[in-house]
Every structure is written in structure tokens, then in C-alpha cells.
Amino acid sequence: MKWLALLLGVGLSAQVVASDIINAKQLLTDMSSAIQERNFDASFVVVKGKGMEPYRWLHGKVEDSELEILSRQNGAGLEVVRVDNKVTYFEPQTQPYSIETDAIAGPIPEILFGEIGSLSNSYDFVLGGKERIADRAAQLVRLVSKDEHKYNYWLWIDIQSALLLKAAYVTQQGEVLEQLQLTHISVTEQPAPPLIELSSKDFPMPLASLAETENTQKLQNNWRIGWLPEGFKLLKSDRHKLDLNNELADYFLFSDGLVEFSVFVQRPLSGQRASGALSSGATTVYVHNSGAFDVSVVGKIPTMTAKAIAESVTRPL
Amino acid sequence: MTQSNFNVKDGQVTSSIFDAEQALDNASQAQFDADKFARYALIGDAMRSQQNQAPCIDITASMADALADEVTYGEQAPQQEPQKVRQEDNVVALSNWRRPLAQVAIAASVSLVAVLGVSNYTPQEQANGDFPVLQSTPVTGSVSPVSLSSEPALESAEKGLRELQQQRIGALVLEHQRQSRMAHALTQQAQEEKEEQKK
């Protein structure tokens, strides 16, 4: 009898392992559809080192159109509004503008609202333990980078509703750099009143073409970027002036689906300056002074990765 | 009028001016203690808890001091300085020890090597393993342009450069944030184009 039980046990645990592999991905897919289907009013905070940013996040469906509001509650403020496939950003000191896309680019990577499968080239989906987050039972799912050049992303998903409860950027050494934690969520039958108001409002037209605007020009082989971490693709390259200080920069945008980084090549500032890095939460800024030009890399990538990218930029032969 | 008499009166005059029981004229102004008056006003504000009009505490001087002490961007000199000082200290210690006994001198030189060895080891390790940190001010994900432009006019060339670089970094972070908002849309666009090409 004993050996039968043992055999059964082994068989069962093997089955559990097999279903775990499906589950991690399935959970993420469930989460993405839960976020898109449900009416909810949530508050969360983003914690970066000693800094903290509170947000409110409303989502709902009104007569077949999907509505979403994300607003930062502290400081200068930021309000992002989505009506179906049009996302409008309201920020101080700039005109509101719209982008034609189906997800808000906020503290939560957009890929989590969409087709997660495309991440499997760069990340492994690993099921973690169960925990209590925001007074709910949550399942940990880890996106583990396949190499050491990227951070890992951990998500805690509500077992009951499949909604996201917590997320964090974690280094290869297991150190949490930046985390997002829901402090309150209420799932309702009816969408919240501010969302219903949205459907009657007008928003600016989406930017005509994403890649080109008035004072930008396409870049063609101006610079050679010698090294990129595995899985990152060039999304955009141009030459344009930066908003804040009107400085001209050759610009490159790369993404692996989960995180993005920017490469800027600019004329060097005068004076002797050493290359160096600074960071806030998961975001790294690495400034490399290569003599004739300055290369800066900004993104949610480890300092070593940003350094390697910045130092690999050369003039084309 | 004696000095002590004057001092007692001094506080009373300030207080009564503050309570509007005495007119502020030339005679009273001579005995008026401005510091005390400001303190009374502050206490009054705090007790009425007028926190909207925060008590005015002048911190410009302390801020200027703090800024003056702040490490210059990418400057590595301060890291090396402590090492030098330690080296000199050790040399002095050795020459003191050498006088009384040769044996002690040998022992001291051994410990000197040990100390130097250790002090040399650590900074090198730091220099190889890590990067100089550019600034201590954290860049939040949301760089507010306000904090960047509200700095006063440049005072020295060095400070100016540092500011320029900080401003540039602020601009880079903001630009990255703006551009990466389009990343998702761009990825989708690229995928759609690929699918169309396949057809």
C-alpha cells in the first residue's frame, strides 16, 4: 500500500510541475484580460529607494468602449486618459498630446496588458510562492531574464480576481530596486463616474506619424552602436532637439518588449568630466564622455549594461 | 536709568508693541528687540496653527553652505586624499619608533606594509569594481522641470558646468520618458508591417 501511495505522490507532484509551467503564463494572460474586462478603482504607490509616488487608476467599460484614467497624486502631477485606442497625456508645461495605442505607458509595463507571449524570447516565466498582498491572497510570478544584462520583473497576482497587486524590478542578486504596490482596489459592477464623463469629452488628435514630427529627421548610420543586450530591437532613431534645454541630440530608442532604453549622442560639454552613472529605482542614467562626443544611456537596465552600450558607440567607418 | 531696568523694560516694550498696546514710534523703537518680535510672531503663528503661511525660517545661508560642500560631479580627488594622509601618518610613526629600538623599527615597518597594503587595496578595488557616482540628488522617474529651472544664476564656471550637466541629465530622463511612451505603439506598428509584408 505504501509504495502505491509513494507512486501516486510522485505522479501527482510531476503533474503539478508540468501544470506550473503553463500556469505562470496563464496567470499573466488571465491578469491581462482581467485588467481589460473589469471595472475597478485602484490606488497604488511606486517606491523607488527613498522616493514614493502615489497614483490612482480607474478602469471601466462603457458601451463597448474601454476607458481608463491614470493620475499621479503628488507634485507637479500627470494625468493620462485612454479612450479605446487613444491615449492622451496631460502634463504641466506641455500641451496635451495623444498617441494611438491600446495601453497607457505608466509605471506598469504595457506588455502586461497585451500579448505576453512575445516576452518568452528574453524572459522565463517562473511560478513563485503564495503571499498575502493588500489583504488578498496573491500568487507570485517571476519574469526571469535569460541573461545578466537585464533586471527581473516580479508580479504578485490576486488569486481571486487575477488583478495585479504588486510588481517589482529585481536585480540578478535578488535586490528589489523599485516596486509598485496596490494599496486599495475596488472592483465594481458599474464603471466609476469620472470614466462615464470621459466618453463625452474631446481629446487632441493622435500625433500624425509616430516616427517623424516636424523638426526631426531620420538618422541613417550616423553612429554605430557596437553592443546591445540580447533581445533589444531598435524602434526609432532620429535627430531632434530635447524639450527641456533645446539641445540637439542624435536619438535611438530600443525595447525588448518589457523595458526600453534610450541612447543619446550629443556634443560634449566643455571641461574635464569623468564618465559615470546615477540611478533612481530601476532607472539608470549613464553618461559616457568619449572625447569628441557624449553618449548617454537612460533606461531601466543595470548600470553595467548601460555602461557597455554607451562605450560601444563609435563613429561609422 | 540703569542697565538692568532697561533690560526688563526691553521685553515688555517688544511685547506690548506686538500686542498693539503701544505705538511703534521713535521712542519705543529704540528699545525694540527685533529678534524677540520675530520669535513672538512665530510662536503666535504656530499656536494659531497657520500652517498655510509657514513660519518664515531663513535657510538660504545653510543651503548655500550645504551646496558648497557638495561633491563636484565626477571628481575623484576626495577619494584619494584620505589615503595620502594616512601614508604620511605612518611615516611619522615609523621615524618615532626607529629611535628607541631597531627591533621595534622592523616590527613597525612590517605593520606599515600591512596598513599600506590594506589602504591601497580597498580604494583600488573600489575604482575597478564600481563607477563614480555623478550626483547624490536622485532622479525621480518624473523629473519636474520646475526644480531644474528654479536654480539661481550661475556663480562660477565649475558650478555652471555641473548645473549644465544636471540640466542635461534632467532633459535626457524627461525625453526618455516621453519617447518610451511611444515604444509600445511603435512595436505594434512594426509587427503590423511585418505581417503585411508576409501577406
TrEMBL record, chain A:
Signal sequence extent: 1-18
One Pfam family, short name: MucB_RseB_C
Domain MucB/RseB C-terminal per the UniProt entry, residue ranges: 219-313
InterPro entries in the cross-refs: MucB/RseB_C (IPR033436), MucB/RseB_C_sf (IPR038484), MucB/RseB_N (IPR033434), MucB_RseB (IPR005588)
Chain ranges of the MucB/RseB N-terminal domain: 24-193
BP term (GO), one: regulation of polysaccharide biosynthetic process
Organism: Pseudoalteromonas rubra
Family: Belongs to the RseB family.
Protein name, per record: Sigma-E factor negative regulatory protein RseB
Compartments in which it is found: Periplasm
GO cellular component entries: outer membrane-bounded periplasmic space
Gene3D superfamilies attached to this UniProt entry: Lipoprotein localisation LolA/LolB/LppX, MucB/RseB, C-terminal domain
GO molecular function: antisigma factor binding
Alphabetized UniProt keyword annotations: Periplasm, Signal
Principal location class: periplasm
UniProtKB/TrEMBL annotation, chain B:
Residue intervals of the Anti sigma-E protein RseA N-terminal domain: 21-83
Domain Anti sigma-E protein RseA C-terminal: 132-182
Region annotation Disordered: where it falls in the sequence: 180-199
Coiled-coil positions: none
Gene Ontology cellular-component annotations: plasma membrane
A GO MF term: sigma factor antagonist activity
Signal peptide limits: none
Bilayer topology: Single-pass membrane protein
Keyword annotations: Cell membrane, Membrane, Transmembrane, Transmembrane helix
Similarity section: Belongs to the RseA family.
Pfam families with a match to the protein in the record: RseA_C (PF03873), RseA_N (PF03872)
Subcellular location(s) of the protein: Cell membrane
Species whose genome carries this gene: Pseudoalteromonas rubra
Protein name: Sigma-E factor negative regulatory protein RseA
Domain of life from the UniProt record: Bacteria
Main location (coarse class): membrane
